Each structure stands twice: as C-alpha cells, then as structure tokens.
User: Fold RNA 3'-terminal phosphate cyclase from Cyprinus carpio.
Amino acid sequence: TRLSCVLSSFLLSFQKSSFSSAGAFVEKFAFIAALFVAIRRFILTFVQCESLARALYSHTAIHCNNFSLFAKMAATTFEMDGSVMEGGGQILRLSAALSCIQGASIKINKIRAGRSTPGLRPQHLSGLELVRDMCNGNLEGATVGSSEITLTPGKIKGGNHVADTRTAGSVGLLMQISLPCSLFAQGPSELCLKGGTNAEMAPQIDYTLKVFKPIVERFGVQFDCDLKMRGYYPKGGGEVVLKVNPVKELSPINLTERGNITKIYGRAFVAGVLPFKLAKDMSTAAVLHPISNHLLRYRVYADKVGIEAAEMLLRNIRHNGCVDEFLQDQLIIFMALANGISRMRTGPITLHTQTAIHVAEQLTNAKFVIRKAEDEHANNDTYIIECQGVGATNPSL
Assistant:
C-alpha cells in the first residue's frame, strides 16, 4: 500500500509539473518508467494474491491513463485452468477468442486435462495459430501435446487467412474460435478452414449452416459459409470458406418464445465406399419420428442411427425450448459480448454450457443468471439463460 501511495503521489506531481526542456521531460519519463517496472517486479515477486496484485496494478496506473506505455505495463495476463468443468478444447477456444477480442494476454494451463489424450491436438493447434495470425499476436508453448500456452494478442486485422488441421479435425470447431474474433476485426475477413466437415463430437457443417447460422445472425452477425468439399474421418480433406463482415457491436437476443413447429426435415448421406442403401436405411428408420442429422458410426446398424437421431430431436422438442442442447453453449460468447440483456429458452443446462458461462464470467464482466421457466408451456426441464453483456465495441468502426 505504501509503495502504491508513493508512486501515485509521484505521478500526480509529475502530471502537474512543467518542463523547461525536452531533455528534462525524457529524463523524468524514463525514471518513472523504471520505477514502475521495479514496483511491478516487486508485486509479481512478493504478492501471492492475484486479486491484490491486480488492485495494486490498477492503483499505480490510475494517474497514467494518458500514457499508453504505462497502460501496457499495467496490463495483467489472465490465467485459465483448462482442467475445470468440461475440461476439453472448449475452454481453450473460448479463452483464446476472448483474449483476442479484449486485447488481453492469457495463459492457459492443464489444457484438455479431462481427456484421454490431454494437451493440444492438431486441430487445437491450428485454431490457436489462426487466431494468432488474425491478431498479429505472439503464441508461446503451442505444440502438439503441449498442456500450457500463452497468447499475447495485437489488433485484429481482416483479410485472408487459412487454417488446415491436416486431419479430420473439425472445421466447425475452427469456426468457433475464429468467428467471434473476425467480428471485431479492422475489416472484412475471409477464412479458409480445412479438415473434417462431418466429424463425431463436433458440430456438423450441416448443423452450422441450418441451425447455428440463422440464430447467431440475430446478434447482428453477418457471414457467408461456402462448403467447398466435405471431409470425413480419418483423412479429412474438407474445405469451408467463411466470409465475415465486422460489426461495431453485437445486439442482444431474446429467444424466449418458440412458436409452432411447421416443418421437420433431415439429411442422411454416405461417403467413400459405403453403399447408398445405408443412407436410405437411416432415413427409413427415422421417418417414424422426426429426423435429425447424425453420424453413422463404425459397426453401428444404419436403422439404429436413424432411430437415435429421431429420438435426439424429440428429446429437444419436449422441453419446449428455443434452442437445443448443442446450440446452448455456442451462443454463450455472443451473449457475453452483446450490448444489453440477452435471454434464451432451453432445456437442461449442459456441462458445455456451464463451462462456457464460467469462462465468459472469468474473462469478462458479463453476468449470467439461470432460472426455471414458469410460463404455461414450461415443464421441469425448461430453463431461461439470461446474460447482461459487456457491450464490446469494435474500435476500428
């Protein structure tokens, strides 16, 4: 506290001083910079409490707002534990995107600790490298298998960027980390994303186009998604081109009234050497119920896959929500960044959604509230997720 008060008084007197020469100004400025570095080193060495360290940084920097040098020196590197809650790549993607948008450095450790093969996989590395290139940033520790990385972002620029997982790693997950960043770029972006378009445990490109895209556009997001080539396990080879226009800010959404279901349709298809008959078997099995998009897994009968897809859709219809269990978590980052209060009606809150909320609240000032829906159409599985967004703005627009 004494160090902080001494520095604050010194800086205050510095602001009130007049300088007889440019040399005197430079000399005094250099001395203050050196003093600030010394106190920063003292804080990092002796202060164990992170919140106290941030408070000291804030106090010592309060009189230096007119000096960008001091502002940068006072910036704190956020830390995120990649093993909490869902413990997978979602924490990495959200943390990196929010770091890039806010211009704050972030250190992520224990990456994917909750997975059978922890650490970075090729698709995660591709996503991090894409964000680094988009914001002219610095990325440390990013190699396949690494459990800790540090990202120091610069300004987000538009233009053309390419990310290639060189595997069947999901292009949908590459989109999750890059789309929010491109919305706050200096100009339009064109992202060429290569990998798997239809992979397990990841958003299908069909879902992205038919479900995610029309809903996220309600935030004021404008982007085109051109499917050039599908890619499947194990080789990948898919290609999607994303064209994104930047926004000044995101608008809040209000998804609390579903309305009537007027149409249900689905897609069943095969690739490679699989016979077309399998696609017909999947659709025939699902036609007894509404059909959804689902992958045919190895050695799983086609009719069983069709029934599973139909049952999955029915489960999400029964809770009378406006979004399904897979869209929940994908909207959290946009709700957190929007300017105002967003609400969405959904079914039981998934672990992915809880994790996304945790990350958003840790790295922004967004506040989320989850409550049971109590209207006449609600049941025990109907919830409302409400968020007071931070109103992030694009300084380039």
The radius of gyration is 24 Å. Residues 253 and 342 are 5 Å apart (CA to CA). Confidence is low (pLDDT under 50) at residues 12-23, 44-74. Residues 22-46 form the longest helix (25 residues).
